[in-house]
Amino acid sequence: MFAVRFGNDPSARMQALSRVADTHRRSVELAVGPRFDGIDLRDVSYEAIPVAARVKANGHLVAAAEAVLEIDVLTPSATYRSDLLWQAAELYDTAGRPRKALALYERFVDGETDHQNRPEAMYRIALGLHGMMRYEEAGVWYRRLLEEGEARPEEKSGYWTRAKVGLARALLATPGSGGALEAEGLLRDFLEGREVDPRSADYRDATFHLGRLFVGQERWLEAVEGLEPWLDRYPTDDRWGEASALAGIAWLHRAERLASQLDDDSTRDLEHSPISPGYRAELEISRRSALVRALERFEGVVDRLDGVDPPLLTPLQRNLLRVAGLQRGTVRERLGEMDEAIKVYREVEQRFAEEPVAVEALVSLANLASRIGDDEMARKATRRARIKLQRIEQRRRMDGVSTGVDEDRLERHGPDLFVGGGSGSLDRWLRLFPPGGGGGAG
Known about the structure:
The chain is an all-alpha fold. About 70% of the residues lie in helices and about 0% in strands. It contains 19 helices and no strands. Helix 3 (about 50-75) runs antiparallel to helix 4 (about 80-95) and helix 4 (about 80-95) runs antiparallel to helix 5. About 35% of the residues are buried.
């Protein structure tokens, strides 16, 4: 009202709009509560703030940004205008309006070559494009920021070093980019920097993605060496379940490599030299130790995610819960704990009765039963697997064809998490008895 009343006086109108913007900023603090005082809401997970409070806060942030932009139009000062542009960009960014924020950040970068906030503005542009899954465009901005940092070695900005992690993530997320080698170099370069604080979010991200990269490249020992400290250091991170599953996979494959050495008649790198009893014992101890660690990590995933209300789980977390639950059986088999493996497969079948993972659990159970000579158990498990498979296919046909959006995104999330004999068995099963087809055992 004050701004409207004194609309013909630019100075008075600017003063009134400034008060409007400040009022909305204070309203944001009231909406989210004192727990987030002094905290950048962009760094707070969406789930940490109740939806109603988040919506209310975002409304105030947008209103504050609009007031600031109106001041920007009225002010005669070019210096003041750049600061206003920055404020509005931050407000839109915090309010979850990425397109408006990106446009303002780009205007800021184009108009300010020496401003202290220029590196952050460029980083925010790259981060915004990254969040919109426009990875190649994000990569361009990350590289541009890195180039400016190299051109100004006397100036220090954390955003120049953070751009290394961002560019590595963009390279890893770009399908067919072939940027894994460059991404690894960027992550290592960041982690080896003197200015890096292990307590920082960027250090956490870099170590996580490097471990994930090692799993994707089947560098199992390097993967566990990176992921195990990460799991111990960041137990409350939202990605803990994924990291634990990846560590479990790495330990399981590590055990399988050791088992292949045990199956050999010669010591590695020494042709025709028999494995000594002492070396064989060491290999067996290492193999079992790796399997125990794999089991601990898969159990950790189940313990972390199974108690969460299903609607609150992300698609990836739902997938991890099923994969890790099933892989416990695979590990139990490798440890020779057949009764425990049978319990796991039955538990997974009952827990996820009408889902594909239940079919895989039954196929794994049938295979295990055949190996231990329990033909009756094998026949029953095979029959139940076939029935479930047909039911799943019938339900899919009734519901219509799935778009597979979540599945496609999961495929880009890292290496295939279905490892071990069970998945191969399911593939063979599907080839022999395609969904909807007739025939089959049982």
